[in-house]
Amino acid sequence: MAGVGRTMIAPLLVLNLIMYLIVIGFASWNLNHYINGETNHPGVAGNGATFYFLVFAILAGVVGAASKLAGVHHVRSWGAHSLAAGAASALIAWAITALAFGLACKEIHIGGYRGWRLRVLEAFVIILAFTQLLYVAMLHGGLFSGNHAAGAGGYGGDYPADHHHKPAAAARV
Fold first, then answer.
1. How many domains does the chain have?
2. Could you tell me the residue range of the domain that residue 61 belongs to?
3. Where are its TM segments located?
């Protein structure tokens, strides 16, 4: 059963990693031109929410890409010891991506001219908010399924990796 989990999570992991790298590229380009005062550049423009969106988009991209490194480690080792790091970093990356998603929605709602690069960045952040949530749900589904290596200190309560844990003796009355 562990193979089924890996085969489901691994493609989503790769997809999200590629999308986060694209977000880093577009957000850094837009932020660089925005900081340089080139808001009349055909690809930048924007409105009052643009600066905040760009900051959170680049933050979401960097944290998301870093969390995918923990995810790659988890998929390779597929144990409970790596699941905690992978799931925690994925949840943090999703939270920051959700903030960027909200700012993308606000930027779209305010309107005004936004260049094609900014619109592509908005689209990628919106898509990533949902694919990252799916990835987090799949990881947390594995947290409770017990499909991970038993010798890694699973969550079943048996503590197979803890050599010092001894079950409490029955109380004598």
1. 1
2. 2-145
3. 9-29, 43-63, 83-103, 124-144
